[in-house]
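User: Can you predict the 3D structure for this chain?
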Amino acid sequence: MKAMTASEVTKKVIHNEELFILDVRNETDFNDWKIEGKNFEYLNVPYFDLLDGVEPILDKIPADKELLVVCAKEGSSVMVAEMLEEAGLDASYFAGGMKSWSEHLEPVKVGDLKDGGEMYQFVRIGKGCLSYMVISNGEAAIVDATRMTDVFTDFAAEKNAEIKHVFDTHLHADHISGGRKIAEKTGASYWLPPKDAEEVTFEYSRLEDGNEVMIGSTKISIQAIYSPGHTIGSTSFVVDDQYLLSGDILFIDSIGRPDLAGKAGDWAGDLRETLYKRYKDLSGELVVMPAHFMIIEELNEDGSVSEKLGTLFAENHGLNIVDEGEFRKLVSENLPPQPNAYQEIRETNMGKISPDEEKQREMEIGPNRCAVR
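Assistant: Here is the predicted structure, written as structure tokens:
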């Protein structure tokens, strides 16, 4: 019996490979959040329904497809995979369960910058989070880091780059930021928008409209653009006149939601102004790199998530709502459920509470819910 890792499943997602998943979590958890792939098939049968054996489901499992058993933490999938093996099927169990799926980060190089610089996107495939690293002449900057900080520090070390700056585009409500931890570990500057940081309990550098931070001797600039709407302090970045890091304001297939601080009515106008005026004044050739993706179809062939701003103005529904009343209705009504434990996550990112690692995992379990479609 084999274990299949989150990294192996991620590569199957990116390469559009076939996989049959037997998910043995309860139906509610499966419907809320599952491993997604364009060519994946699913059968959801709760583990407790299989305690007497797997014979009732054998005819529902195709013999010509790779089989993966998935559960929340791993143990149940091991037991079910063993029963399937005893029944004559070749089955793998998912190492680490859905917790490992939530935490896996896949680094993807998205482009070159001036004079040898590089831009990387870290795809948190199971959670929909996207982080970034800019590397130039032995220096690195990180944007919207997740709490799995070793991935970023190890990657920078592999690239012989010293982390000098860490940014959060806004105060996150759906995942715990690793920005402050990385800054403390490396001595880097930690930047936050001050309008989102009024309640934080720690020192930070004020990220404000017009800030220009240089990375490396090649002078790759990260230009900050105030872009409220998702939060009151949301700030975007233009990197090297090539990339627009849009945070949770603009996604590939959707736009940001303005309600996670309970101020949808107040912030809907800010969101519209950012998208329809501030972003409209930018070059359509900028490649948009958001802080999240919502659906697996947003992934490019290489596993990255990006699109030109001009293309999004032509194709993204949220950028093409002429009537302001209709726009306000879209972003303030019929919203998806709010992220799990989002108030606790906000307080953690403010430094007000310090949950242990297991509690942080529990707080983050579930899909990305930062978008309006």
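The two ends are 41 Å apart (CA to CA). The mean pLDDT is 93.
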